[in-house]
Amino acid sequence: MVELSKFTSFFVANWKLNGSFAFINNYLDPLNNEKFIKKCVVLCPPSPYLYYIKDLSKNSFIGSQDCSYFEEGPYTGEISTKILSDLKIDFCIVGHSERRKYFEETNSTIKEKASKLIENEIIPIICVGETLEEKNNNLTNKVIKKQIEECMPKSAKSDNAIIAYEPVWAIGTGLTPTLNEIENSHKYIRQLNNEFIKFNILYGGSVNIKNSKQILEIEDVNGALIGGASLKIEDFIKIISNSS
Ligand code: PEP
Asked: pLDDT tier at 194 (50, 70, 90 boundaries)?
């Protein structure tokens, strides 16, 4: 399992449903020439490319965008944590809001997935965050608390799991919470449970080269989960290298 304590910050590129062999080769050329000290870089491509990238990438870890909560058997189309472990995949995003929205992912299946990942020594990146309607009704903390309570398995500890705070309304929209709002949500998550004081908590939602430095300077933000801006390798490298 990746030793999380070796790193001071985390940069997770969520490519979503994007990529091709040509894209990957163009991406890895500049990325493989970078040296990231104490910065943990994780690339999450569409699953069919996992093994290819694992083989070619020199300074990044590889993560899956999802996994099955079934272990094996007649579950067409699924990818188990055992298979991910066989491929030596180190991280896996679970509970992304796009999976909650389009694929009916629930807190309880997210918890099962996170638990199986930990059993297989893969680090789950567990996503939580409120919708715009919930934010407007002042329900942000309540939603985060419920999602955390229902999604985090007992086995999740600061050395084997990561939390990502991703306000749903900020994902792919170009909108972000204020720095104060991000700080408050991260602080709120930290005080929910004694164990969370030591957790790495990433922020995700429209992080780009313009706003990343300030966001990553917030005390309780330990890194970023990046969608759109991670597809441009020059931007992704700038975001990582501009952060202290
Ligand atoms: C994401 O996919 O988790 C995400 C944060 O996307 P974007 O950076 O495009 O908002």
From this structure: confident
Answer whether 0.85 is exceeded by the pTM.
yes
Q: How confident is the model at residue 214 (pLDDT cuts 50, 70, 90)?
A: very high
Q: Report d(CA 15, CA 176) in Å as an integer.
A: 19
> In the numeric block, which tokens belong to residue 139?
């329900």
What are the helix (H) ranges across the chain?
21-31, 50-56, 81-86, 97-102, 107-119, 132-136, 140-151, 179-190, 212-217, 233-242
Whether 186 is catalytic: no
Q: Which of 98, 112, 130, 166 is catalytic?
A: 166
CA-nearest of 159, 156, 126 to 144 is 126
Contact call for residues 130 and 167 (beta carbons, < 8 A): yes
With a Cβ cut-off of 6 Å, ligand 1 is lined by 14, 96, 166, 171-172, 204-207, 225-229
